[in-house]
């Protein structure tokens, strides 16, 4: 599996640098708006020029599939290559491995899939870390936390 190194983060312990749940909520809201905007834009363009189905069931399956593909792509690609989504960029946070090691694509994909678990959003009521953070051994830290540990 391909690994993506962030040299400033290697071999550091970031568990005490995890950001507050309110900042995570802001990230979630921004990313949801961006993802839904992307979804509606792509769906509109595809519907306008390429895809037309006469069956409601096929349209429903197509819409769900398109949304899922865009969702997985948005989070997986941005968090793997940049360690942040647009929401994390605006709030100056990033994804890190809990022990500061390498972030593999498999770890990020596991994190992204874990977000689809329905109780994930409510997990913040009981914990500072989200369920998707726990399942993928990742956390969200301020971007300057790696400078403080260097």
TrEMBL record:
The chain crosses the membrane at residues 21-46, 58-82. InterPro entries: Pra-immunoreactive (IPR051791), RDD (IPR010432). This is RDD family protein. It comes from Lutibacter aestuarii. It is a multi-pass membrane protein. Residues 24-126 form the RDD domain. Its main location: membrane. The keyword Oxidoreductase does not apply. It holds the Pfam family RDD. Coiled coil: none annotated. The lineage of its organism: Bacteria, Pseudomonadati, Bacteroidota, Flavobacteriia, Flavobacteriales. It is found in: Cell membrane.
